[in-house]
Amino acid sequence: MLVMAVYVVLANQLFSPESFFYVSSYSVNLLGKYLCYALLALALDLVWGYCGILSLGHGAFFALGGYAMGMYLMRQIGDRGVYGNPDLPDFMVFLNWESLPWFWVGSDSFFWVIAMVILAPGILAYVFGAMAFRSRVSGVYLSIMTQAMTYALMLAFFRNEMGFGGNNGMTDFKDILGFSLQSDTTRLVLFIITVCVLAAAYYVCDRIVSSKAGKVITAIRDAENRVRFVGYNSASYKVFLFTFSAVLAGIAGALYVPQVGIINPGEFSPINSIEIVIWVAIGGRGTLYGAIIGAIVVSFAKTRLTGIMPEAWLFALGGLFVLVTLLLPKGLVGLIDHRFPVKRKVNKQESAS
Amino acid sequence: MFKPVLALFFVIIHLSIFQPAYAQDVVFDDIVKALPKASFRTLPATLDKAATLDDERVATLFARLLEGDVYFHPKNQQVMYVTKIQGERVWIDTLTEQNIAQPSGVRLRKVRVNNRVRSHIRQLLAQRNLSHRDVTVRLQASQSLLADVDSISTKVISSRLEQEKNADIIDVLTTITALKQLQNDDETAQLGALETLRGSLYPEVRVALLSLQRNSEVTDTVKANVDAALAGIEAKRKWFGWAETAFFGISMGSVLLLAAIGLSITFGVMGVINMAHGEMIMLGAYTTYVIQQAFPNLIEYSLLMAVPAAFLVSGLMGVLIERSVIQFLKGRPLETLLATFGISLILQQLVRTVFSPLNRQVASPEWMSGSWQINPVFSVTFNRLYIIIFSLAVFFSLLLFLKKSSLGLHVRAVAQNRDMARALSVKSNWVDAATFGLGSGIAGVAGVVLSQLTNVGPNLGQAYIIDSFLVVVFGGVANLWGTLVSAMTLGVLNKFLEPVTGPVLATIIVLVGLVLFIQKRPMGLFPQKGRAE
Amino acid sequence: MKSALLTEKNPAPDTRHGMILYMENVSVSFDGFKALNDLNLYIKKGELRCLIGANGAGKTTLMDVITGKTRPDTGTVSYGQQINLLQHNEEQIARLGIGRKFQKPTVFEALSVKENLYLSLKMDKGIWTSLWHALSAEQRDDIDQILHTIGLLAMQHCQASELSHGQKQWLEIGMLLAAKPQLLLVDEPVAGMTVSEAERTAELLTSLAGEHSVVVVEHDMGFVRSIARTVTVLHQGSVLAEGTMDAIQSHPEVKKVYLGEEGHD
Amino acid sequence: EEDTIKVGVLHSLTGTMAISETTLKDTVLMMVEEQNKQGGLLGKKLEAVVVDPASNWPLFAEKARELIVQEKVDVIFGGWTSVSRKSVLPVVEELNGLLFYPVQYEGEESSKNVFYTGAAPNQQAIPAVDYLMNDIGAERWVLLGTDYVYPRTTNKILEAYLKANGVSDEDIMIQYTPFGHSDWQNIVSDVKKFGSSGKKTAVVSTINGDANVPFYKELGNQGISAEDIPVVAFSVGEEELSGFDTAPLVGHLAAWNYFQSIYTDANNAFIDKWKAFIGDENRVTNDPMEATYIGFTMWAAAVEQTGSTDVNTVSDALIGMAVPNLTGGIAVMNPNHHLSKPVFIGEIQDDGQVEVVWETPGTVRGDAWSDFLPSSKNLMSDWTAPMLCGSYDVEAGTCTGSK
Amino acid sequence: MINVSQLNQRYGGSQILWDLNMDIAAGSRTCIMGRNGVGKTTLLKCLMGMLPAASGSITINQQDVTRASIESRANIGVGYVPQGRHIFGQLTVEENLKVSLNCKRQTSRSLPEDIFEYFPVLKEMLQRRGGDLSGGQQQQLAIARALVLNPNMLILDEPNEGIQPNIVQLIRDVLLRLNKEKGMTIVLVEQKLPFARAVGEQFYLMERGKVVSHGAMPELNDDLVKQYLSV
Ligand SMILES: Nc1ncnc2c1ncn2[C@@H]1O[C@H](COP(=O)(O)OP(=O)(O)OP(=O)(O)O)[C@@H](O)[C@H]1O
Ligand SMILES: Nc1ncnc2c1ncn2[C@@H]1O[C@H](COP(=O)(O)OP(=O)(O)OP(=O)(O)O)[C@@H](O)[C@H]1O
Ligand SMILES: CC(C)C[C@H](N)C(=O)O
Ligand SMILES: [Mg+2]
Ligand SMILES: [Mg+2]
């Protein structure tokens, strides 16, 4: 369904600029950003909706993926930075760094970056998850620890000594793989890639949740202890899912950065992660497409409202959150299901966390 | 600090109004005449001259200058004091010290003083005040002389010492004498002085000793004695340094406690993931602001009024939220996160709309300001001290209330099994509303306290929400004692780390430590025990 | 990680001496209260053993110890001769072939009846297998067979949360059957069942014995009598008596602390 | 619709920065209203397009794009934090927009499409240190800041400057805190100890935003008065002070290019206009407002002068444009897109106003590239032909980076 | 005392109770029986107000309570011992018992002594957490907890599930005593015939959400048992 809509957008891109169907590259850019959010929401829904792991730190994985990409884009600037230093990014030059710190090594290779986009969030999630799930941290304890994690990372990345540009983060990217980021074609291609990645991720997630492992995961959500007594190592299922989800989030971040042109520690802020949860909840937890719809609807509302009613949009957005919770316990997809009762497994006992 | 000084000058003003003019008037006149033309550089010299006069009006002039109350007429150069007496603006001529009419048609120019001039005046006043009849004024005067022992002669000090009864002042004065003696090149005098100064904690003493240590001209005996004295001082300083850090930690802990304690009820006991908790704190802080606006003359009592008021405001808001939203989310704890997040956005924006996005100014009452100087290197700020006491008081009254009232039991029963509790005749609706109100009300009270420490603005709540959740969870959800211990632990840990690592790293280390700690105790410091079912 | 993600080879218990479970000198205490007190218990291979004892005697705790939910303070628990159960955690113990039905029926509420059984099937439980697994015809038959046995064939697509208490009891028994464990620990299987349903359960459990070893905890004396060969009576955390049903019923101490009037009939 | 000139306003109205930025939005609205009363520009009315980037940096970029592409605004006034500017920068450069940035910042930037009307470090930090050193006689220095680029850069510059003036390492203490730091007990106590060595000590504060209130409160409570250890701040102005209980602050210092208390006719008129516009007698004015005022006035003059709103035309006309300051004297837009402005040091009064105690004799030319940083001491910026370069390396004779 | 007429109840799509009628006299002892899943628990929950009735009416003590809240039924004097006991696991035994104190029905501040007379174990365990008790102990606690409310009617859902024989006898005796000494109405859901026969005066047999037979206990013959209680 979503993929369809996206195809339409693509086709329209090829229409004449003045035609009714024309979609400006501004909108394409915006849509690309929404789809990154959608991918992020999908990742969170996988762990929260299906496994009951309420991560309040998924923004961290997103940001890590983003930073990995940002580092690459930074290196792509080369000597076109303000100081014209061919090796060092500007912020290092003016803080008198002599040479690239070790963790920047390799950041000029695109393949290395792809690896980092996957490894950085993946390893963090694996280490964090392996520790937490094996020692059976769960429920709010886990949620708050993920929050502490992203909060700590935020503070760390704010520090200029970290070598990631401090508060200002990284901006002023010029090109990616030699293609100028300013050009509409590059943007369109990025958008198409985002669509494809999202579609692929959706497919994989769908396969996971409908596989036997998906059933185990759902069972873990509702009665983790019982799952153990049946012989499943619930911790490793959770670690797997958490890591996979983090990698998805990282990829979303990597796609996001070239499209918005900035990455900075603000992405680590706990509020951002809570927003992801909000998207999923608004859309409908425990349904993959719900998460996607939620992310797009909320982001779109934000874009429009901050433009239309700059001083009162928080009332509207806050009100939306309250109303959706009160009136649509299953989120927006509840509305859709209600209208078009599609054949779908009902997940009644969703209150378990 | 200079309150008593000031009070005295009011007395002087009144006394001097009817007094006949002195013979030296000419001189005082000259000084006053010089004021409009004086610059920051020339002013001190002029004032030095004034200080030598035996004229009561000099003291008034000095006090007024300190307050920044001295103006002059741009045309006729008349110098006058513009001040408020009992809320009324008055104009007083400097020479006659009589009230005059408000000069019309001109904007008065100010006799500007800067920090340097002010501290110069204070130094001059100190010398005058050494024989003041008020003990506190005398003590203060003598203490400010410590910073600049050269400005006073040994003779004056020793004659003062003969008359002085107060032990503290005697201590300061002997220290001053000893410091003066140290400057002698005479070995015996120096040794004698060192004897007196041993163990003294005044920073000036340490500075003097340090410079003596560097001085190559002193004899070896003196040097050895200086070393010993310094070592003793350093040891003491270190000890008090620890005490100070501990105090800082506890005080930070009590702020955390206060911020978190309401949440430990709404979230810990009731299970509502209350993202609007911070905004309840914020409402409490704004209540303080409103109270201060409503009763501008009662600033001293404003906090006492604000505590119940904030409890009511936030509490009622809590009840409202519970009745209008949360009650419909029973059994869906995760959804409360979404709804309360929405509410928190609305409340923030509401405050921005009503009170503007700017921070609001909340004054600190006099009794909350300043510090209790236990010794020259260790003092305890009053506001922190009261806050520690207050937060513990809130904590224990809450504990007692939950223990003694049936509400405590009912909340927990409802939280665990709503239907069953209702089947036992518990009015769950009422209990929910009351509990949420209670938790929110306490958050409001925390807001009153925070208004004394930090900004009162729309973002106030956001700044505390994460810490609050951390504290509650670290302590073990639904365990009030856990909240206490966890708040204190986090506070103290942070403050002991900070000097070593700097505040940024300290926070990061504490957070990482927390994440690791939870691995050892997956249910917080004080987990709920029992068969997991 | 590897062992968890990939297939794990589970050793079979060494039962050459005819015993499948050894519990020796096991003590468990909670906040100073001794739930199990120096308990010794041996279960033979293929045996059907009934465990009775007053409420709070420690029967459930005993099962907790065997299945790894509770760690004993002292004592040894071994599965066959060689496998020290105390070194394994819940999921490993389950994979070793010890299945358990809980006193309070616990099923996966969000899954359908059929899925509940599917998850319980005896097979590799690693995540890697789970991701790619599809039901074989054989497994399908197995599940149908079990659904039939537990009388939930008609409800197989219902969500487990919709079952009544008794139906959940049945489903849990079904899950136990699906896992094909060597040792079954069954905690109060007939609670909440009608007399005739209890009879069916009795039949089922007796038919399982022989090939499997079964430990049943039950308070329904009629039920116990109908299945029991050896009965062990627990009291205050240790074994009070052991023997045939008749012997137990006339045991004066047992009568006093447990049976009450029932001993007389 | 076609015959209005659109002015984009890109200031956060929600989120953490709303505290500061809302005022600037109102200032622009006031200026627009004012201009329209005088008949607008080029015979067209001005229309302000307000959007809310919500203190969210990527959103700044998105909104900037929206303003330029969708709303087709001719100029944008916006930004407060440097990171918001950095986020917007590529967008305005790509779409050839025009941005006026009205807040003091760390320098080290010069873009063809941005005009910087706030202070560069040499227009605030260096004069302040000069004052403390020469007039107050400070010998020991505490550089306190929030841990991010502006304080770090400023402190780097100051450190270099202090050392160049013979201050030794042990007489400099540097401490950074996280954003919104609220517990200053340790640090203030350390400052107190650092200051009790007998040498006159001063604190240079680049503490940002909300962290200031708890900082000054703690200073007051621990009994550090301005006479003992003066604190000079670069981010505390009248507006921030209106949210403080000023009692503990009296005598501490602030360094800016504008103070409300400065008595000139232009300033009095501006203050009156502002109070009337906002409908609140107690509202204050501050430096970034003046910077907005100057920026707006210059832009309007440039449009009027060239008869066009075309970015390139207007930009060219802006260079060399002179507009009277509110505090007297003339602000001039330099070829490096930074202003020449006077610098004032003031002492905070108990009514929340700041009394000037020192000022530079003339105006100071804003320096995009600091002379005290090794990386930028050879750089200069000049957006007039023939150089047309944001960072020109004088030694190498090449233009690096953005052109 | 309790009148149920034409009661219908459904969970989402599936109807559980069908036009159910039932009359229970004050002071009587009634036993409701039926196979697993016929709707006994559902019926009791409807009586208690924990599940809303789709249609029909419920009257208790001449008050129409069809739409009344749970607590109002408790206030009328209905004590409830649910299936599965539903002990407050994190509260101590004492706290579990005290929940209903200080409420509208029971304004006393201290526990009545007689509950410890009925169930002496509880006295020893006052400070233990409810969740830590063994099944049988919890059952006793659940009954005692309902008694603290001072009810005039006790509704019990399979109170013998998992209870040791001598306690089953104890519960039986307690129920009979309560009925005799205090005139308490007893409504019991029970699967086990001996117990049902011992406690009940009259019986209701349920099948698929309907009452299929009722009468005095002696009328419950083997045919009925075979037809409605065996598999
Ligand atoms: N986690 C725990 N903490 C404290 N006490 C416990 C805990 N678990 C069990 N107990 C106590 O240990 C004793 C034994 O409990 P257990 O559940 O094993 O009894 P049981 O024999 O299964 O009883 P029943 O027949 O009633 O189910 C009980 O008195 C119980 O209160
Ligand atoms: N939450 C629910 N949603 C849907 N159906 C339900 C739900 N709870 C129970 N049911 C169905 O309602 C029917 C009646 O259940 P109920 O619990 O009343 O049975 P019962 O007679 O008490 O059985 P038991 O003797 O096993 O306790 C059952 O068939 C069950 O499947
Ligand atoms: C000092 C601050 C108020 C503004 C500054 N431009 C910054 O970097 O954020
Ligand atoms: Mg048991
Ligand atoms: Mg039932």
Automatic annotation (TrEMBL), chain A:
According to the UniProt entry, the coiled-coil residues are none
InterPro entries the UniProt entry points to? ABC_transp_permease, ABC_transptr_urea_perm_UrtC, LivM-like
Q: What is its main location?
A: membrane
The protein's location, in the record's own words, is: Cell inner membrane
Residues that span the membrane, as ranges: 20-40, 47-69, 110-133, 140-158, 188-205, 235-256, 276-301, 313-336
Q: Which organism is it from?
A: Alteromonas australica
Task: Give the GO cellular component terms, alphabetically.
Answer: plasma membrane
Name assigned to this protein: Amino acid ABC transporter permease
UniProtKB/TrEMBL annotation, chain B:
* Keywords tagged on the record: Amino-acid transport, Cell membrane, Membrane, Signal, Transmembrane, Transmembrane helix, Transport
Leader sequence residues: 1-23
The UniProt record lists the keyword DNA-binding: no
Q: What residue ranges are annotated as transmembrane?
A: 246-273, 301-321, 385-402, 469-493, 500-518
Bilayer topology term: Multi-pass membrane protein
**Could you tell me where this protein is found in the cell?**
Cell inner membrane
**For this UniProt entry, what is the primary localization, expressed as one broad class?**
membrane
The record's Gene Ontology cellular component field reads: plasma membrane
Q: Name one GO biological process term.
A: amino acid transport
> Per UniProt, what is one Pfam family of this protein?
BPD_transp_2
> Could you tell me one molecular function GO term of this UniProt entry?
transmembrane transporter activity
Which family, according to the similarity comment? Belongs to the binding-protein-dependent transport system permease family. LivHM subfamily.
The molecule here is called Urea ABC transporter permease
From TrEMBL, chain C:
Keywords in alphabetical order, please. Answer: ATP-binding, Nucleotide-binding, Transport
Protein name listed in UniProt: Urea ABC transporter ATP-binding protein
- GO terms for MF: ATP binding; ATP hydrolysis activity
Where would I find the ABC transporter domain in this sequence? 21-261
InterPro entries, per database record: ABC_AA/LPS_Transport (IPR051120), ABC_transporter-like_ATP-bd (IPR003439), ABC_transptr_urea_ATP-bd_UrtD (IPR017781), BCA_ABC_TP_C (IPR032823), P-loop_NTPase (IPR027417)
Q: Which domain of life is it from?
A: Bacteria
Q: Name one GO cellular component term.
A: plasma membrane
- Report any Pfam family annotated for this entry: ABC_tran
UniProt-listed NCBIfam families? urea_trans_UrtD (TIGR03411)
Q: Which PROSITE patterns match?
A: ABC_TRANSPORTER_2
Source species of the chain: Alteromonas australica
TrEMBL record, chain E:
One GO BP annotation here?
A: L-amino acid transport
The record, for SUPFAM superfamilies, names:
P-loop containing nucleoside triphosphate hydrolases
Q: Which Pfam families match?
A: ABC_tran
Which positions carry the signal peptide feature in this UniProt record? Answer: none
Record keywords, A-Z: Amino-acid transport, ATP-binding, Nucleotide-binding, Transport
Which protein family is it in?
Belongs to the ABC transporter superfamily.
Q: What is this protein called?
A: Urea ABC transporter ATP-binding protein
Organism, scientific name: Alteromonas australica
